[in-house]
Amino acid sequence: MGRSRSSTNKWKYINPSYYLKRPKRLALLFIVFVFGTFFFWDRQTLVRDHQEEISKLNEEVIRLQDLLEDLKNDQSVSGEKMNFSRSGGDVGKKIDYTEDPVDAQRREKVKDAMRHAWSSYEKYAWGHDELQPQTKNGVDSFGGLGATLIDSLDTLYIMGLDEQFQRAREWVANSLDFNKNYDASVFETTIRVVGGLLSAYDLSGDKLFLEKAQDIADRLLPAWNTPTGIPYNIINLSHGNPHNHGWTGGHSILADSASEQLEFIALSQRTGDPKYQQKAENVILEISKTFPDDGLLPIHINPEGEVVVYSTITFGAMGDSFYEYLLKVWIQGNRTAAVDSYRKMWETSMKGLLSLVRRTSPSSFAYISEKVGYSFVDKMDELACFAPGMLALGSSGYGPDESQKFLSLAEELAWTCYNFYQSTPTKLAGENYVFNNGQDMTVGTSWNILRPETVESLFYLWRLTGNKTYQEWGWNIFQAFEKNSRIESGYVGLKDVNTGVQDNMMQSFFLAETLKYLYLLYSPPSVIPLDKWVFNTEAHPIKIVSRNDRAMSSGAGNSVGQQKSYKRPLTRREGRFGNK
Fold first, then answer.
1. What is the pTM of this model?
2. DSSP codes joined into one string, 107-141
């Protein structure tokens, strides 16, 4: 009875009738409630104010970091001696860098070339894919996507051509339309348009570029809907309907089908949507199932069934960027365990490359031959002159002896590629070269279309060795372009490097790649440092983001969320120069 009475006494205080009979206690309860509410609300306000203060402090820290970066870059440009730790994409050396006044002058000359090329495009071909300088009109080589404009965005940004960049940005915002009834190359659209837009986003932080990159990537994705996951090479941007070129016999091209990883992995990282990475990585997974012991694949692969198709093996046209991307995806993922399989495949392919290296007589120029079946073909494309830069970039992943071996080979091949230029009357390289016993090298296909591959390799070798010889070679090539290719209304290629007869096309990659690599060849290493950025095969720099997802497997693309989260880049204008 006592426990029951005690329990009843406790419960009476929550009975409303108790307080209705006792108005003084009701008033006291109301006062307590009001004070308690105000106390709780005040605490919440304090927490909110505290969070806002923390946010403001973080923003101030970021602003100060940006200011510090700009001061560092200004110091490097003004000639103050600075140390740049060679890490990431470099060979591990630590060198002192001092700005050379000659470099500054040459950099400004290259920048002037970009101004001339860009202003000509703006004047005569604005919004079109490419400029025909001789006839002063634009042509839509890629379906009217503004290829030169998008290809040039990051070059303009890096060079500090702000007004030109903003005009290009406005065109992207107001006029760029991907809903075209046009059969587009999946590869060219990926490396130029998706890559160009992603790079502009990584550099500027402007989400417009990311949204546009996702739009065009979504239009390309149905090309991967094949039995093997190896994509078709052509797709209509408006209607879909993916297919392959008739001249390939229905097969896909190796470089075109297996060189979208950098762009699509980056797109998944930045959007959080795994589908892009999954499509691109599943191609490498499929290829890895029957990867040959020498790591060399023919230029035609089958999207419908058995991958390998009997055809030419080459590091030139239609093969090149497959090998390049095996290395660069490893670098893009910051060399973590998640991307080790790419490095292993690349090292296997480099063993195969060694089997293709031959030397001329009498001068012993090293070159990378081609192979059909068991027969070697003594021919090398200028396109294959990306290989010296690739070998130098990848050499740091080996032990000391192997690293030096591949770096030395890179230097030998770069000397050969430089002589592709020096051996002609115009000092510009032909499209490819043949090698006959006792004759060293002879121009095969004799046109020059302003290609970047040799200056690309010179850029890497200068960055990775500090040897200024590569800057001198690059300057000689630039002067040959200025002498033979610059006209009043832009730059043109040559129909024949022996006679100097000009063509009527300013290729978009001249602005995207050739001039960018030349500019960086005379810029401090702090401008697009190789331990922070990786270049796609169209020279669009993409931010390196560590990957901590599981190693590539059938579900590789589903692991995007497990990666280190992508942080929007700070608009600190890394390495940009204020002079215009």
1. 0.82
2. HHHHHHHHHHHHHHHHHHHTTSSEEETTTTEEE-T
